[in-house]
Amino acid sequence: MTTTFQPVTETSREESLDTLRGFAIVGVLFALFLEWDNLGVPPGDNQTSAFKFIDQAANIFLHGKAYNILAFLFGYGFALQAMRAKHNGVNLLPFALRRALGLFILGTLHAVILRDGDIVGPYAICSLFIILLRNSSDKKILIAIGTMFLIPFLYFLILKSMGRQPAPWGGVKEGTGVFSKNIAYLLQHWYPHFIEIYSPALFLFFVGMYTSRKQWLEKLQNNPRQMVFVLLVGAVLCVINYFIPWQQILYRKIDFNSSDFYLSLFINFLRGITRLPFTWGIDLVYIAIILQLLKRNATRKMLQPLTNIGKMALTNYLLPDIFFIPLFFIFFNLWAKVPVLYQLLMASGFAIFLAVFSTWWLKRFHFGPFEWLLRSFTYWKWQPMKKKEIAV
Q: Following DSSP, what letter does each residue of 240-257 receive, concatenated?
């Protein structure tokens, strides 16, 4: 029997995944503005009380949090796709590899043309590992989750046995143009430190795969006591993370010329591993709150714009950079000239735009423009775009 593997249609999508994904995309949008290295702040603006308050709030509620949720949902959604393919008797491998290649191409173009802080390309590379485990047992996925904790340490151990050191942080030799600067940062910073930077994301990919098989989000949404428990645990972890003086605990300055270089690496690695569960606390709070809101008709309708943003997650991830990077760096040279409060207002305004745009677009089309492009590449066939066209 021949079965055709098809894209997930709108009627069979998991609403909770879309809403959580939309929430994370809005978080990434605010991170673009409130991670100050991206667009800069005017001289002296970082001394104002408004900056200090916004910066502290962003550290607690924003920085890194949206990316954690996106990585978790990436693995969760892939596992759903793998289970659907297995149920239909379809070999997922060629579709998954083409999707990974398509993501890598889009991500690399994004990193080179617009911003070196792209996550799409690295996620595409990390997805090769979950593709490899697509049909593995739950036990093997649990082993992969445990192994990911040790990957950076094993990496440093291998380097030591070879008498080599990791690439130094910083010191990127940039070119003169925007493209050359982005390429230099990509080749000299992101990829030389790929294992150190993205092993936590791959860990969350595997966690997403495992919890997807156990239908964790679905069960959580139908179990009020468990949802309250997750909310409380997340809140406690978040509070503990905030009050623990991490800069004074298990911290060693790394000197590449020191005889204690690898000991310092190990101590900092141990510190990072110890802190990780605490940094995920606020993500558990966000997940529990959103799932609770989705249970009620009134609040679910209020979240529909966020759900629509999630349905076009790839497009809405790229759009802010497509719009603001040229605005800040190419046409008007606004880098480090826009006050902090204005940046916050711009992020809020663009988030509203994404909600309105996504709602308008999805009334007329099956997919977002970049989703359509990726799906057409994945299935090696142009996908129907307009609603009046029948999906095949």
A: HHHHS-GGGSS-----TT
